[in-house]
């Protein structure tokens, strides 16, 4: 007769031990758990089922932080997801070949692609371009007027007529003039929805100042020079570059761009609280590999590449794991921490912890989506894996 085994404690899913030794000292674990939930109170319950509401093939799902707005990218269309699960097209000219990521700041959703397509979606589902283009250089010629002799520099920016956003400025055009001269400023660029703001230096000066705004392509300017007082602040700044990932951290929107040829990722930051303008001559950091997780919190920036995991704080960059994260969007905020899926299971930061590696070896997956879901009074981190792959060191 077989002796009975008393089980007084449940250890959850554990596949890093011999299946013949799953019961020890009155404790038991499972080596396989399909279609069931295991909670922290050692309870097993059947997983809930789901009903398909749509057969639409979406390339990207977008949800606001308050869970009141949802969108999806279908082909080249950005679709609003209505309460009845129907779709309303709000933009029809997205890049069908691109991968998109998004970040919400002040209720606006900033959408970026790895091919450079950048949009902003407002609370009313209005869609505009993220950032204004840099104008072309103007042309300068001398005419009669009242300016003193000397060297003058001229450049320009675009300014939105709806919200006052200003573009970056190109290199200035330079002209030496004789005494009692004026400037014929021609080839002034114009685009719809903006005015062109022209900046001019003082005589022989190096700083450019706001001179006038126009919608014309040619203007004659005669000063006076002493009324030039508002300096140019956006020269050499540009709209957001192409990026794989975007997040908000320390008053900036941070972008990550993967250079496939060199297999490095470059992190760019917007101007502080100036999300429309970037200085791509400066960068936050350069990291080996491709960034798959980029998540900003109040005190740190979590960065997960395909081979390593880092945390950036005011004190600097620290590598916290020598394994990476799979492709996808697995990072989810909960409280003051971020939960995410790595190549070795579920992790959270900061501080960095691997929550599953000690007990269970999980398949890494090749494309992962994560979400925090509530059911039965319990919050659960749920990860959906595409092509699960092989667990690293299961027994």
Task: Summarize, please.
The chain has no helices and 36 strands.
Overview of this structure, please?
The protein has no helices and 36 strands. It is an all-beta fold and 395 residues long. It is elongated. The protein has strands spanning 9-13, 23-24, 27-30, 36-38, 44-46, 60-63, 70-74, 77-81, 87-91, 100-105, 108-113, 118-121, 127-129, 139-147, 150-160, 173-177, 181-186, 194-201, 208-214, 219-221, 245-249, 252-259, 264-271, 274-278, 285-288, 291-296, 301-305, 309-313, 316-321, 327-329, 332-334, 337-342, 345-349, 353-354, 367-375, 378-386. Among the domains are: 9-46, no CATH class; 51-130, no CATH class; 139-227, no CATH class. The model is unreliable at 5-10 (pLDDT under 50).
The biggest sheet, with number of strands, parallel, antiparallel or mixed sense and barrel status, is: 5 strands, antiparallel
Mean pLDDT rating: 88
Number of strands: 36
**Beta-strand level of the residues, as a percent range?**
over 45%
Number of helices: 0
Principal-axis shape equals elongated
User: Over the alpha carbons, how many angstroms does the gyration radius reach?
Assistant: 28 Å
| Stretches with pLDDT under 50, minimum 5 residues | 5-10
Q: What share of residues is helical?
A: under 10%
Would you tell me the structural class of the helices and strands? mainly beta
Separation of termini? Answer: 30 Å
């Amino acid at each position: 007769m077989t002796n009975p085994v008393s089980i007084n404690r449940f250890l959850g899913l554990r596949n890093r031990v011999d299946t013949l030794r799953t019961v020890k000292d009155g404790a038991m674990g499972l080596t396989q758990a399909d279609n069931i939930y295991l909670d922290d109170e050692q309870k097993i319950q059947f997983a809930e089922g789901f009903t398909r509401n749509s057969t639409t093939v979406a390339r990207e799902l977008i949800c606001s932080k308050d869970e009141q707005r949802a969108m999806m990218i279908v082909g080249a269309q950005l679709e609003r997801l209505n309460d009845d699960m129907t779709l309303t097209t709000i933009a029809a000219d997205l890049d069908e070949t691109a991968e998109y990521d998004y970040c919400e700041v002040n209720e606006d959703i900033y959408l970026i692609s790895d091919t450079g397509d950048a949009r902003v979606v407002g609370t009313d589902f209005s869609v505009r371009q993220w950032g204004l283009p840099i104008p072309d250089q103007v042309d300068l010629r001398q005419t009669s007027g009242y300016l003193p002799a000397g060297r003058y520099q001229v450049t320009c920016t675009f300014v939105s007529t709806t919200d006052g956003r200003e573009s970056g400025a190109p290199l200035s055009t330079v002209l030496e003039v004789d005494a009692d001269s004026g400037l014929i400023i021609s080839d002034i660029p114009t685009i719809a929805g903006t005015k062109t703001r022209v900046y001019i230096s003082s005589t022989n000066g190096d700083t450019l100042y706001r001179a006038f705004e126009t919608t014309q392509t040619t203007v004659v300017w005669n000063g006076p020079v002493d009324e030039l007082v508002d300096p140019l602040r956006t020269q050499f700044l540009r709209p957001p570059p192409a990026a794989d990932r975007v997040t908000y951290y320390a008053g900036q929107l941070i972008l990550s761009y993967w250079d496939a040829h060199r297999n490095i990722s470059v992190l760019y930051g917007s101007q502080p609280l100036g999300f429309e303008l970037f200085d791509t001559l400066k960068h936050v950091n350069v990291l080996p590999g491709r960034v798959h997780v980029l998540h900003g919190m109040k005190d740190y920036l979590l960065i997960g590449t395909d081979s390593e995991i880092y945390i950036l704080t005011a004190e600097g960059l620290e590598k916290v794991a020598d394994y990476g994260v799979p492709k996808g969007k697995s990072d989810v905020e909960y409280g003051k921490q971020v939960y995410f899926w790595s190549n070795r299971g579920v992790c959270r930061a900061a501080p960095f912890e691997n929550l599953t590696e000690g007990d269970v070896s999980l398949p890494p997956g090749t494309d992962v989506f994560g979400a925090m879901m509530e059911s039965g009074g319990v919050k659960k981190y749920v990860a959906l894996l595409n092509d699960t792959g092989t667990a690293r060191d299961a027994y």
